[in-house]
Amino acid sequence: MNEIHLRQADAQDAETIAQILHAAFAEYRDVLNPPSGVHKESADTVRAKMQSGHWLLAECDGRAVGCVFYEPRDGFMYLGRLGVLPHMRGRRIASALMDQVEARARAAGFSRVRLGVRVVLPAMRAAYERRGYAFVEAHTHEGFDAPTYVMLEKQLV
Description:
CATH class of the domain at 4-111: Alpha Beta
CATH superfamily of the domain at 4-111: Gcn5-related N-acetyltransferase (GNAT)
CATH topology of the domain at 4-111: Aminopeptidase
Structural class: alpha+beta
CATH architecture of the domain at 4-111: 3-Layer(aba) Sandwich
């Protein structure tokens, strides 16, 4: 595999980002309750998110293979919609994207990065915890009696 290149996405990349997200999250389509909003992402919703935040694209051999969204929130940088094409997993693409978001958070003066992970995905939560993210709070989607996702936070040094 050739080197991974990361770059800031722009409006012209919106359709590509939506396609990556659909492919990356397809395995969760019948697993998550309530369903992930990622399945409703489109070029238009991706462009709309560009009004408040930013998208990064990971490319290999000139092809987009992963993406992540990040935006400043009240006192922290939020990281979401992290996705890597299934056939490209295991090559540290997600780690490279997260590293870049964390670096950009530091450069913007933030000392914390937060992300959400579904309760029914303990292996995913464990992977984030291995990167230094720790539990902050639990949340419950509307219509549910028990928490459906948790927020994790990493203190940047």
